[in-house]
Amino acid sequence: MKPPDRWPLHPAPIDGESLSSWLRRLGGSYQMTIGQLIEHGLGHDAKTEESLDLDPPTGLLATLTRRTGITKDRVREMCLAGWTPWLLDSLEPHPSAFQTYVRQFSGAPQAGQTVKALGRPLGGVATPRPTAAGLSSMRAGPRPRRAPVDLAATDIAQLPVPRPDA
Predict the structure, then answer these.
(1) Number of H helices, E strands in the chain
(2) Tens-digit pLDDT profile for residues 147-156
(3) Are 35 and 46 in contact (CB under 8 A)?
């Protein structure tokens, strides 16, 4: 007996959802794990579960498209490979990837860069110098703590009630 091409239950993917999350929900509809769904429901090796969110096999995406009716492009958007080259330049790690991704469009100055407002190179973190008034308040000791309010013992009628403006 041949299994049906289209699954009767296939919840739609949520915007921004990863492929593994969607397959976990799909598998839950049939009380299966992701590995069982990939192997028995899609006819692919269960080991492909490890690469679902990075770069799943093209055949797996085609089978998912046929079984769920979701377009191949929509399914591909659920993994990082679907966002290359728009979000990532490549799926391969590159030594300058962190520098490019984090600092390329940052407005913060980089170490050693001269900041015009300061007129000097940016170094470590600048801390304010303590003043005499600040030092004397620190020597005086900690501030007294307020007693906690026990709401169980407080009469509700004594609490302030916000009044709407008339």
Answers:
(1) 6, 2
(2) 565 555 555 5
(3) yes
pTM comes to 0.54
Decide: 115 and 122 in contact? Cβ < 8 Å: yes
pLDDT digits (tens, 9 = 90+) for 36-46: 988 888 888 88
Rounded to whole angstroms, the maximal C-alpha distance in the chain is 88
Residue 120 backbone dihedrals phi, psi, to 5 degrees: -145, 160
Q: Which residues pair with 18 in a beta bridge?
A: none
Q: Which two tokens stand for residue 29?
A: 């509809």
Q: How far is it, in rounded angstroms, from Cα 90 to Cα 46?
A: 25
**C-alpha 42: how far from chain center:** 28
Which residue in 30, 41, 40, 35 sits closest to 5, CA to CA? 41
Q: What are the structural domain ranges in the chain?
A: 19-83
State the distance between the two ends of the chain, measured CA to CA, in whole angstroms: 75
Q: Which long-range contacts (CB under 8 A, 24 or more apart) does 36-44 make?
A: 41/7, 41/67, 42/67
